[in-house]
Amino acid sequence: MAPIGSGILLAGLLVALVGVALGVLAARSGDAAALTAARRAIYALAALLVAAFALAEIAYLRADFGLAMVAESSSRDTPTFYKLTAIWSTQEGSLLLWVTLLAIYSSLALRLARGRMPQATPRAIALLAGLASFFLALMVIWESPFTRLSPVPPDGSGLNPLLRHPAMMFHPPLLYSGYVGFSIPFAFCVGALLAKRAGPEWIATTRRFALAAWAFLSAGILAGALWSYGELGWGGYWAWDPVENASLLPWLTGTALIHSVMVQERRRMFAVWNASLVCGTFVLCLTGTFLVRSGVLSSIHAFGASTVGVQFLALIAVTAAFSGWLVASRAPLLRAPARIESWLSREALFLANNVLLVGLAGIVLWGTFFPIVSEALSGRRASLGPPWFAQATRPLAIALVLVTALGTAAAWRRIRPRALLVALAPGLALVVVALVVGAATGLFARPAAAAMVAVCSLLAGVVASELVRGTAARARMRGERLPVALARLVARNRRRYGGFLVHAGVAVLLLGVAVSSSFPEQRDVRLRPGDRVQVGGYTIRYLAPTASILRDPARTGAPVVLGARLAVTRGRDRELLEPARNFYPARTGTAGPIESFFGGEATSEIALRSSLTHDLWIAFRPDVDGLVQVARALDRRLREPTPMQQLRAIAALAEIYRRDPPPATFRVIVSPLVAWIWIGGGIGLAGALLALWPRTRRPVVDAHRRARVRGLAEQPSPYPVVDSGATAVTPLTSSADTPYAALAASRASAESLQQRGD
């Protein structure tokens, strides 16, 4: 399998280089045959890389420990579910995933862009193929997923226990899909600039890819937050960790890009700004990939050191320098005469939105790389913690939500202050309600949280009022029931209302973040069976310890699981919760075979009681020092125990723990509105999916029909015929076409009156 995989990678590198050459040839000569061949090279590259990725996954499923990658991150007792996900826990597998996604994205983009942008497309192909060549060269020369081990070990090291969580099945692929997805708008934008095409055609070609990349990145960030909340045992969902920040940076600039390109499409403005944004976003995507794998900044999300860090830094530097030079050199070509007519307009508010998003990205970037800067300047590495990030970003985040609400309510070009106030009225009413409820619950004890609740309520109210207003207008016009009118309204303009839904989701999510981070109740306590503690209105009683051997309830493959059975009461509600701690054997070290079962990594299986109002979160950490002492004694007595003796010894230790448990440490947190974070994220992703969903093709109302409506066409048509001397219009058969009937009637009436006047 290794020779086949290595051969596929080498063939892929050659095909990618051929794609670069053909793209350059097509760009210089305009040869259609060369362009077709370049496109087919990308298709062939995608097929080769999908085959290579499939081979790697088969190696994991077959437990082929002859491959270094498999031996490093899997083992015979690793559950099948996690064998499939182990590939992206390694550097080699991550590189293979990255370039495979790049080839798939490129193939799809070229398929959808056929016939469009003939000058920019060959240049985009050359750039995408060159990027693929870089990653393939890394694997062929330095980090091959198909490197063989000799001799072949009997078993592998196993997957890092922290990665044995369902969210990790999706978190890395989603993030990488977001990172790689932004390569498509980057490539076509650069291709257009190289071809000296200043129009927004590259936006129309790649808009969906930018939105899809943003959606994947959003889903990946959300999955990472779920993993952090449920696996790391500290009780939070966002720690401002360098790798977390690395995913947030392109999300912020990508959000700015998605808003800003709308202005260029509609008003032919912000062309230079948009080109800068798309280039900067892609550079940040490369930076995020580098931070995950380089180890240059310490992170709880970093699971391997990089041997290709220098090469990655060179790629980032070259990409940033080249794209910066290109945008600067094409700036005179990109500038348009259109200007903002009023600062009280949607385009002006979109500009403010962009400034705030880029400002937030700048703050996060500075805080993330501050340890490197401080070490370079003073020789001492200092870091900025979560309180600094929260304090620095909070004012801009509040202003951003406010500007988003105003932009949603405003019109293009200009809007009168009174009209804007009328559009904001439902949102302002919701703000009053939210603040009244907040005052009754102590919200004003945290002014920043109160401000965020206010602006989120304003945004949610504006979005809801837009939906209600549009639905009511359609229902009156078409005579439809309200649910039908809402569904058809959204279906006819998915991009607009998908964006509204995303805004509503962001409002709900940020409201949950503001409240949950401002009003948590936390206690760390040591309890014996029979003890109890009160936190946040809950009474928690430690009933009894639990111990499982080779029966892991979470199916992570942990051989030893120690837990606690808790009785949780609040008022008349009573519930049993069972937090646990998974223990994995140490693969290396000086511990004996029995002691090693407690010498490896341990992970938390939290107990969670979640509701719309709050979460009860409990983590458990048993005291195993006594068990370790007994295990050492057994190792000395048995010297070289057989697997069956080891199993019996561990079972005996579990029984000792159940009979005479030492005090255990519990972390209990009651946090309000945490569920709103996941609900808001789900709403936002649903909105992105709605905006991405292809529109149902409808019959085109062309110039022929418009001419016939005016009574000028002579050929028969399936559409209504209007007589220029009459004031009536032939009825349409479908109620969905009534606006066309009304339009035809009004035009016919106007023309009839004009003729009569003449």
TrEMBL record:
Matches recorded under Pfam families: CcmF_C (PF16327), Cytochrom_C_asm (PF01578)
InterPro entries listed in its UniProt record: CcmF_C, Cyt_c_assembly, Cyt_c_biogenesis, Cyt_c_biogenesis_CcmF
UniProt superkingdom: Bacteria
Keyword tags: Cell inner membrane, Cell membrane, Cytochrome c-type biogenesis, Membrane, Transmembrane, Transmembrane helix
Domain Cytochrome c assembly protein: start-end pairs: 88-294
Membrane-crossing segments per the record: 6-29, 41-61, 95-113, 125-142, 174-195, 207-227, 247-263, 270-291, 303-328, 349-372, 392-412, 419-442, 448-468, 497-519, 673-693
Gene Ontology BP terms: cytochrome complex assembly
One term of GO molecular function: heme transmembrane transporter activity
Localization, UniProt: Cell inner membrane
Membrane topology, as annotated: Multi-pass membrane protein
GO CC entries: plasma membrane
Residue ranges annotated for the Cytochrome c-type biogenesis protein CcmF C-terminal domain, each copy included: 313-587
Chief subcellular location: membrane
Stated family: Belongs to the CcmF/CycK/Ccl1/NrfE/CcsA family.
Main function: Required for the biogenesis of c-type cytochromes. Possible subunit of a heme lyase.
UniProt protein name: Cytochrome c-type biogenesis protein CcmF
Organism, scientific name: Thermoleophilum album
Lineage: Bacteria, Bacillati, Actinomycetota, Thermoleophilia, Thermoleophilales
